[in-house]
């Protein structure tokens, strides 16, 4: 398709090189074949020498003006007085040559109608095409040639066809711009997804590595064996983080809720926080499970890094609501509670993730003291619910 489009003139765009210039000129010039009637009239020596010279001069000037006008200004805004002046010159030339040299020159009004359809605003061009055609018929009647019905159809068809072509050009241009915007939005969405995934992945893994490193440092003087175990765990976490980052970059990472529940238990225990975490959860579609897994990971990471809590409770239950069944994830700690600052990147990303599957995310102070996060997602996909 690209190879074919490269050989055709670009619709609605000016030529970018010499080849495109000549191709577009050829597409416009091929319609000059209908100038055969005036040319034959001059070649048949129906006029005196002065009339013949003036006829050739007028025909050449008319043709050059028409080609230049259509070539440079088709489907582009009217520039000052250039376009109206050129159209006036074309009309005056068609009237003068038809009245002085006869009926064969009435075909020039067809080109005037086409030029009106090509360069004037759509609404104005329609009126101008009708006026040009009516003027042609009036001059034909004045020349006693009868109503020039043979040229009425080409004048109307050519003029209104050009307005249709212009609308097609405008639609093509808008479609091209829309496709460019869609591509830009898709790129922005992919960058946002990657930023969210890397934040969630690295925030959790690096927090766990930091905690285990501190724990290994404290154990090293008195319990070198236990410190070695912690170092081994650090190696495992770092290797898993590398795997997760590679999967996130390629777009195939989908965390599992069961794995995240086990990881949350390990992370909270390593941080010295008493944890109550279920080992399994209800069955969910893959997308909803992935969202809850990301939410649990970010929530536990925040508890470990920022809360200063001594206890953390994680609940995962299925509830029946008026809108249908939902699965509710609750993460509650007894730490410092909300800081009052605007939500960070982590919570903002979670809100976007949960909202994308039709769920809700609520955060705020826990009863008494601490921080509470509640995420709810539909228990079934949209297709299943329907």
Radius of gyration: 38 Å
- One letter per element, helices H and strands E, the order comes to HHHHHHHHHHEHEEHEEH
Number of strands: 5
- Could you tell me how far the N terminus lies from the C terminus, measured between alpha carbons in angstroms? 40 Å
Helix/strand class? alpha+beta
**Widest β-sheet, arrangement of strands:** 1-2-3-5-4
Helical residues, percent? 55-70%
**How would you sum up the global shape?**
rod-shaped
- Alpha plus pi helix count: 13
Strand content: 5-15%
Unreliable residue runs: 1-12, 382-386
Oligomer: single chain
How confident is the prediction overall: mean pLDDT? 79
Biggest sheet statistics:
5 strands, mixed
Concise description?
By secondary structure, the protein is of the alpha+beta class. The chain has 13 helices and 5 strands.
């Amino acid at each position: 398709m690209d190879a074919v489009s490269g050989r055709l003139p670009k619709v609605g765009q000016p030529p970018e090189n010499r080849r495109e210039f000549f191709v577009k000129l050829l597409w416009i010039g091929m319609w000059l074949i209908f100038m055969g009637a005036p040319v034959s009239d001059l070649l048949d020596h129906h006029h005196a020498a002065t009339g013949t010279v003036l006829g050739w001069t007028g025909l050449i000037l008319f043709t050059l003006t028409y080609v230049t006008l259509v070539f440079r200004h088709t489907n582009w805004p009217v520039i000052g007085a250039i376009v109206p002046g050129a159209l006036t010159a074309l009309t005056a030339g068609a009237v003068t040559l038809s009245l002085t040299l006869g009926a064969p020159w009435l075909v020039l009004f067809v080109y005037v109608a086409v030029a009106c359809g090509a360069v004037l605003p759509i609404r104005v061009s329609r009126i101008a095409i009708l006026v040009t055609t009516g003027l042609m018929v009036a001059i034909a009647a004045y020349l006693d040639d009868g109503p020039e019905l043979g040229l009425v159809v080409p004048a109307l068809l050519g003029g209104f066809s050009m307005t249709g072509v212009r609308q097609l050009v405008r639609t093509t241009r808008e479609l091209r711009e829309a496709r460019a915007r869609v591509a830009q939005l898709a790129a922005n969405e992919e960058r946002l997804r990657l930023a969210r995934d890397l934040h969630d992945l690295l925030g959790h893994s690096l927090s766990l590595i930091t905690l285990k490193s501190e724990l290994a440092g404290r154990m090293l003087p008195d319990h070198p064996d236990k410190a070695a175990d912690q170092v081994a765990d650090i190696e495992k976490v770092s290797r898993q983080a590398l795997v997760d980052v590679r999967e996130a970059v390629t777009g195939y990472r989908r965390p599992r809720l069961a794995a995240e529940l086990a990881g949350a238990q390990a992370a909270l225990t390593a941080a010295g926080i008493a944890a109550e975490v279920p080992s399994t959860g209800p069955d969910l579609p893959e997308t909803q499970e992935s969202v809850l897994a990301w939410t649990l990971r970010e929530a536990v990471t925040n508890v470990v890094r920022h809360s200063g809590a001594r206890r953390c409770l994680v609940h995962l239950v299925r509830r029946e609501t008026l809108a249908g069944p939902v699965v509710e994830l609750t993460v509650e700690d007894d730490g410092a509670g909300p800081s009052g600052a605007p939500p960070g990147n982590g919570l903002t990303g979670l809100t976007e993730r949960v909202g994308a599957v039709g769920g809700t995310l609520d955060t705020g102070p826990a009863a008494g003291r601490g921080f509470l996060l509640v995420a709810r997602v539909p228990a079934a996909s949209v297709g299943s619910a329907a």
